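User: I'm writing a short report section on ligand binding and want a predicted complex to refer to. Could you take this sequence and S-adenosylmethionine and write out the structure as tokens? A short remark afterwards would be nice.
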Amino acid sequence: MNNPIPITDIHASVRAFYAERAKNGDGCCAPSADSYARCGAQSANPFHAAELLDGIPEDVAAFTLGCGDAVSLARLRPGETVIDLGSGGGLECFIAAKQVGEAGRVIGVDMTPEMLSKAWANAARLKTTNVEFRYGFLEALPVADEVADVIISNCVINLSPDKPQVFREMFRILKPGGRIAVSDVVADGELSDEARRDMALWGACYSGALDRHLYAQQLHEAGFVDVKIEPKGGAAKDVPMLKGKLFSAAITAVKPPIAARDG
Ligand SMILES: C[S@@+](CC[C@H](N)C(=O)[O-])C[C@H]1O[C@@H](n2cnc3c(N)ncnc32)[C@H](O)[C@@H]1O
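Assistant: Sure. The structure tokens for the complex follow:
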């Protein structure tokens, strides 16, 4: 992936973008709904079925900055340990917490302090006992080795300036046989330098999108098997420079069990 901007600048810019979203409660970064034009407007959650949102206050349920439904893709089971990468206001963590139950646990990771404050405040309102939120980067996850049964992530990996490192970290924290369920924005082909340099479009989940074949290749290189990238809808239809190049996708993959890795 050609990346003309230094990594620390991208982190700083993305963090400022989401600090603002956390403060205003803006819904944005939902490319399949062409929401770049929607930034600044409150709207209902277009991604999660009503029954998933049962018992979750309306404003918490509406605060999705995602591009799909990673938690349903994960097919969670009671008792599982789930890590949500880029947990934002915490919505998918709260849905996951209901599904894994008291015997399970959910850890959300985010690099934006304003998002973490919002997520913790939401958790207090919901009185959840099996969810926690941690400060940290996808590229250096604050989670020990082989802790997770499942990793979910909704519209975040595209925002990382170092995706191979994110995939290595995901592999590290998964138990052998663990799985990932990711909603993300993905590209058909490489994006231009002009698009890559546009930090507002990067924050909106467009300019950091990785080519679909490279995405699969980098997951394989990190050690994952059974990699599937299923297109879900066109994205960035409202941005002429990116029109027709981006789509939201449902991405799944598995960390091989130890026996399979040992051959
Ligand atoms: C598009 S929002 C998605 C939030 C949430 N997953 C949702 O569906 O509403 C992206 C979130 O990921 C966080 N984020 C972006 N890049 C990150 C990185 N490299 N490490 C940790 N968090 C990151 C942002 O702070 C923001 O809260």
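A remark for your report: The beta strands are 81-85, 105-110, 131-135, 148-154, 174-187, 210-211, 225-235, 246-254. The chain has one domain: 7-262.
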